[in-house]
Structures are given as structure tokens and as C-alpha cells.
Amino acid sequence: MAQTANTSHDMGFCTVEQHILSKQGEHPLSTGAFTSVLVGITLAGRIISAKVRRAGILEVLGEAGDVNVHGEQQQKLDLLANKALEGCLCYRESVGIIASEELDEPRIVRETSGKYVIIFDPLDGSSNIDVNVSVGTIFSIFERDCEHPKGHDHLNDVLQPGHKQVAAGYIVYGSSTVMCYTTGEGVHMFTLDPSVGSFVLAQENVRMPLKGKYFSVNEGNYNSFPKGVREYLNWCKSEEAGPYSARYIGSLVADFHRTLLRGGIFLYPPTAKSPKGKLRLMYEANPIAFLAEQAGGRATDGKRNILEIVPGSLHERTPLFVGSETEIERVERFMQEHGA
Fold it and tell me: Which partner for 138 in 8, 170, 173, 184 could form a disulfide, CB atoms 3.0-4.6 Å apart?
């Protein structure tokens, strides 16, 4: 398969499928079973990208009329994106369990086979799509033990700490459709080329800058942030700091994509309204944290490494601080000095 990958480079492109297969023999995930999962995700990404770009024409903007498990109004595109991922993943023999923001409970696809658990946020930021803001799909992949005893609780296959992820990534639907993924061997970035219908390698081994002059946070909640976070933000805007520039899109995947490339920090601290945080650990914070660490950054809930948190439920929430190593260390110092 390496020969195939070399040929694709000679032709001027390397698809995401060729990229993972070119690593066969170098990484335990470089197998046909894992590649099948990745192909399913990229196929769903192409379908979702097409729906997003034609949302106004297809009349799929706005609320669907139902609420999800979080009590949030489901958007029509949330349901379309979730359906696309389910359809592209569930018939693949290597998929055992799927779990989603839009599903109340994990769905058992194969009771005693299918080695992978796929957890995803089908369309992060979808409430902003009617004003043409970038949105995205976030995914996390775990392995499961198929040799389980009778009566095994399949929820245990899902509720694994983030450091056990075997792969994670996101697809951002913006001015172009971009996919980033990691299998624990660096972060690789691909751009959807409509002329060939494939995600084509744009950059291997993406590295997050060690520090950056951007902070990204919803400052509308400033008054209910912990004091340490407020003091850190005050410092960012001081003459001593430079000051930093504020950048906030309101779509996690888009805000993180900028942070990955430009450096800086994204913050979603606890607030009076959401004392345990608002972002979901399993299908938002965990995959983003895995990508950040693989790119040289860090992610924390303010006290613990995100990837060390043992989840108690599929839809568990968490605060999230993610970005350049220097910036995370600085905000941690402010929180230790002034209160987290």
C-alpha cells in the first residue's frame, strides 16, 4: 500500500484513505478495518458538506421542532448530519457501537462483533448556520473488548477516559471543507477537493504554535467566570500582555481550528448557570484535547488534564481550556493564584 501512496504523491495528491494505508506496518491502526471506519466518516463529511452548502436552497435551515437530550432545540441540519453519519457507519463490520449528541443512549450496532466505538457531535455550531457561520463534525474513536462475558454492560465500552482514544478528528465546513485527524502519531490536515470528490492531504504533522496572541471566549459570561479566569482575561487586555486580540466564533470546531493553526487559547469556563461547564466531554472536549496534545498543545478543565477524566455518563459536561502550551500554563497560574 505504501507504493500506492507514493504514486498518489507523484500525481500531486494523497487522499486521507491513502494516507492511513501508507502507514500500514508503522501503526497498529493502519488496517483495512480502521480504514473502513475512516472512509465512512469521510463519506458522511462529504454528504454533510453538500447539505450545508445548499442549506438555504434545500430549506433545511431552522429548528426541527424537537429537543435533544440536553433540552436544546434540534436543528434540521443536526438531524440530517446525524442520519448521514449513522448511515455511513452502521453497515461497516468494524463498527460495534455508535453514540451521538443527538441520541439519548449509545446504539449497539453489533452485539458481539465490531471492534470500534464511534462517538460524534454530528454538527457542532449548527444554531449559527443560518447566519453562514462555519460549523463542523467532531468524532472520537475507541476500541472495545468484543470478548466480553454474558450480561456485559456495553455502556462500559463507551465510557472510557480520553487517553484511551485510538483516533479523533473533526471536519470544519467553512470557505473550504477541511478534515483534521490523529491516531496518536501527529495531526494531519486534508482539504475536500470537489473536482475529485476526496479529502486531499494539505499538511502532515501540524504543530500548534507554542504561544499565541489570541484568546477566544464568550465574554458575555464574564461576570460569572471564576475570578482566576477574569484576572487572566484582564491581563490579556493589558499593556503588559501586548495586548492580545479577541476572536470568538461560537462554534467550537471553528474556534479550535483557528487556535490549532494560529496559537492562543480557547476557553469555556464554568459559569453560575453552568457550574460543571457546558461543553460535552465525550464528543467535544475529548477529541479536541487529543488533537491539541498531538499538535503540541494542551487541554484542561482548569484542574485536570481533559484526557485523564473518567466519564460518568455519555452526555457529561466539562469546562474546557485548550490551546498553546504557554497560554494554558499561564491561565492555570492565574486560577491557582486567584481561584478556579
Answer: 170
